[in-house]
Amino acid sequence: ARGDEVDVVALQPPADQPAAALPPRIRVRGLQTRTDKSSRALAAYLLPLLGFLAKAAVWLARQHHRRPYDLIHIHNMPDFLVLAAWFPRLTGARVILDIHDIVPELFASKFGSAANGRKVQLLRWVERRCARLADHIIISNHLWRDLYAQRTGTADRCSVFINHVDQRVFQPRPRTRTDDKPILLFPGGLQWHQGLDLAVAAMPRVRAEFPNAELHIYGDGIMKPRLIEQAQQLGLNGAVRFFPPRPLREIAGVMAEADLGIVPKRADSFGNEAYSTKIMEFMSLGVPVVVANTKIDRYYFSDSVVRFFESGNADALADAVLALLRDEAGRRQMAARAQAYASEQSWQRHQQDYLALVDSLCDRTVS
Questions:
Q1: CATH number at residue 54
Q2: Quick check: bond before 283 cis, omega within 30?
Q3: What is the pLDDT of residues 104-136, one digit of tens each?
Q4: Containing domain of residue 137, as a range?
Q5: CB distance 302 to 276 below 8 Å
Q6: Number of domains in the chain
Q7: In a shared domain, residues 353 and 328
Q8: Residues 134-162: tens digit of each pLDDT
Q9: Which whole-number Å values give the CA distances from 207 to 88, 108, 183, 212, 310, in the listed order?
Q10: Helices 196-209 and 224-233: crossing angle, nearest 10°?
């Protein structure tokens, strides 16, 4: 509606994913195929990132030379993707560095590195240098904003935009399921800090009272083989089901069919301060959510809109799930309160804040 022109530089979509219809003036360029996320090897993780950085830098330089950009918005991970905008910034473009995950802490959690080890210290050095290359930094939650600004000295050009839910995608819809199975659902990356092993461990107790209950896990990651093995060892074949990741609009439909959303992050890890967009997505869909009582989730949510349990405790998770499954009226009331809260935090309510930032960086009058 504003008439802005946008080029999206990204990974190529999966071969079996149909092309999405794009609004006018928006173009998407896929520069690199997606790689397997199950490897723990550092080289297997780093090399595709470096390859994408090189391709993106060349592509942006060529496009900017032909038709100069006003603004480059860089999403991490990793922070050093900001280097892809070196030529546009050198020749007048403004740069936003959007920090969705703080790299040093995520690296330490993912690869088991000491918090003050050499590799993590190196990443903090890279973090500071990358911050200097951006005109403004966006952080995905308030806890990280304080930490990042203190480490990089960017308090005067650092703001918070949580991953606001797009209610055009995550909106309530009539359920198409006709079975009476209680379906518990987790969509997302399968890393250790997500605590999915706790959800699997809770299922025997849940099924002791609700024998047809199932846990559906959508996603990939280094923990997937372990989770499959754990489910088999607990005799949960068929009760814990694994599915590949789905495109955004498709996974929204899957989530809407669930009885409960499960977000069992570990509070003694990276997950303690990592904001989970999936919580607000479930809330926007009208699906009640069971959430670990991490620091970040206690910051943003209250007991009136989610059901908390003690992080790291599979029995506490089972208790929370069972309490909600027993109380249909309570589930509906909590879901209604959560849906109202999610509406206040939606992208539709906050997009003008982002557009005002863009206009201020580009020296334009906010329309």
A1: 3.40.50.2000
A2: no
A3: 988 888 777 777 889 999 999 999 999 999 999
A4: 6-164+346-361
A5: no
A6: 2
A7: no
A8: 999 999 999 999 999 999 999 999 999 99
A9: 57, 35, 11, 7, 20
A10: 30
